[in-house]
Design brief:
alpha+beta, 2 helices, single chain, 139 residues, 8 strands
Amino acid sequence: MAAVNPYLTFNGNCASAFLFYKEVFGGTFIHFIRFNAVENESREEGNKVMHVSLPIGNGTILMGSDAPSTFGELVMGQNMAVSVSTSSETEVKRIYNALSREGVVVIPLEKTFWGALFGLFYDRFGVQWMVNYDYAGKN
């Protein structure tokens, strides 16, 4: 069964925003990864946040990152995506193929260095989606 969570993107102030959200909601970060901590990532991103996740409420995970410079200047108001995490490779492929049809693919569905099958796209209505199946412990 797929889980759906909000994903926020920032112009370099993701760390500050998520420290604030942690102060408001409490909890402990599941992930807090900076670009410069990942091998083979562009050094121009420096200390920007590549991915952060903070559980809030009953089962919701607030996720975020700083926009890589290759994405250009982020327009606030267009900085949200729906993140879908699935329980199988078959499910992530089905959801990706269905939602991305007639849309605009930004990152094709592919295996990643963090051990997942991941894709990023806009559907035909302009909604940004991130789909992910985590292989961790499954291969």
